[in-house]
Specification:
Blueprint: E1 2-5, H1 10-22, E2 29-32, H2 42-47, E3 55-57, E4 63-64, H3 67-77, H4 88-116, H5 125-143, H6 153-168, H7 179-188, H8 192-196
Parallel strand pairs: 1-2
Antiparallel strand pairs: 1-3, 3-4
Helix pairs in contact: 1-3, 1-6, 4-5, 4-6
């Protein structure tokens, strides 16, 4: 299999953590690319018309995107129901948490693009503030969650979202007002899959 990726992407990290947890890392060739909404990657677009990462090309030539689909596909390769609970409350809790964490990633990545890709004179501060409000509200909700227990797609997604905030928005200092979430992140961050995929600041 081949995975189009950039190590800074929290969505890519979610896929890589999932692969690591499932013992599939050795079956995936990483294809590193750089892109922004205004600098598309043509080889990627030939496989994924949306032109986003992560994009996975399977051994039989099928293409999957984006991270929730890729992660569930990898789970199926490993026998199923390991990262995605099969039924009941555990499944819906994991999927809800994945959606919440993906929402944090979405807002944070949009803020990153606004600051890194848009010309300074065209930046819209009120729009940035609106994205930051989404991040803060979601973090407050996570502070009230009991995140202990299974390491599934929900908690994987949360860990990757928090990691991206640390990478790109360290000044937000989210831990200072969310001690339960901070303690959980510190403990879960010691898992080999998260340590192996921690991106370097660039």
């Amino acid at each position: 299999m081949k995975l189009y990726f950039n190590p800074a992407s929290p969505y890519v990290r979610k896929v890589r953590v999932t692969a690591h947890e499932l013992g599939l890392t050795g079956r995936i060739e990483l294809i590193s690319i750089s892109l922004t909404p205004v600098t598309p990657h043509e080889a990627l677009r030939s496989n994924n018309p949306i032109g986003k990462i992560p994009t996975l090309i399977t051994d039989d030539g099928a293409t999957f995107y984006d991270s929730p689909v890729i992660c569930e596909y990898l789970d199926s390769l490993a026998g199923g129901n390991r990262i995605f609970p099969a039924t009941g409350t555990a499944r819906w809790t994991a999927l809800r948490r994945q959606a919440l964490a993906d929402g944090i990633m979405d807002a944070a990545v949009l803020m990153r693009y606004e600051e890194a890709a848009r010309p300074k004179e065209l930046r819209w501060q009120a729009w940035i503030d609106g994205q930051l409000l989404k991040v803060r509200t979601a973090l407050d909700a996570l502070e009230g969650e009991n995140l202990g227990g299974a390491f599934d797609i929900g908690t994987i997604s949360i860990a990757c979202a928090l990691g991206y905030l640390d990478l790109r928005f360290a000044s937000e200092a989210w831990r200072s007002t969310r001690p339960r979430l901070a303690a959980w992140a510190a403990a879960i961050g010691k898992r080999p899959s998260l340590e192996a995929t921690t991106p370097a600041v660039s």
